[in-house]
Structures are given as structure tokens and as C-alpha cells.
Design brief:
Structural class: mainly alpha
Radius of gyration: 19 Å
Distance between the termini: 21 Å
Number of domains: 2
Number of helices: 3
Low-confidence stretches: none
Order of helices and strands: HHH
Shape: flat
């Protein structure tokens, strides 16, 4: 929304996002030996922790909701309305 309305902070954010994606895409052939350097190869969080996929997904969602709630509380406390 910030980019659509012409706000500079939104444009900087999207510019950084695009630059990061571009540099990772360009460097990924160089980084892949490091990414796959362990004996485990590619592994997901559920595989690493030995937990069910739905449990890990629920935990990630719970952390996101807690973060949104915490941000709301901090915004009400420190935001000038």
C-alpha cells in the first residue's frame, strides 16, 4: 500500500526486498555448496525436531499471532494518538 501511495519508506522497503532477492539469486550457485555442506543435506524444521508438520505450523502461527498482539500492545503504549 505504501508503494502505491508513493511513500518513500515503502519504496525503500520494496527496493531492499527486490535487491535481496536478486543478490541471493545471483549468489545461490556459489552458496549451494555451503548450504548443502552438512551431512544432513536439506532438512526441514519438523524433520530436525522430530515433530509433526501440523504441530510446527501451529507453533509458527502462534508465534506470529503473539508477535502481532505484542506489537499492538507496544503501539498503544508508545504510539502517539
Amino acid at each position: 500500500m505504501a508503494v502505491a501511495t508513493g511513500k518513500v519508506d515503502g519504496m525503500v522497503f520494496v527496493g531492499g526486498l527486490l535487491a535481496g532477492m536478486f543478490f541471493y539469486a545471483e549468489l545461490s550457485p556459489v552458496l549451494m555448496p555451503f548450504v548443502n555442506s552438512t551431512e544432513m543435506g536439506q532438512i526441514t524444521l519438523p524433520q530436525y525436531f522430530g515433530l509433526p508438520v501440523l504441530g510446527v505450523a501451529a507453533a509458527v502461527i502462534a508465534m506470529a499471532l503473539a508477535g502481532f498482539y505484542g506489537a499492538t500492545v507496544l503501539e498503544r503504549k508508545f504510539g502517539g494518538r
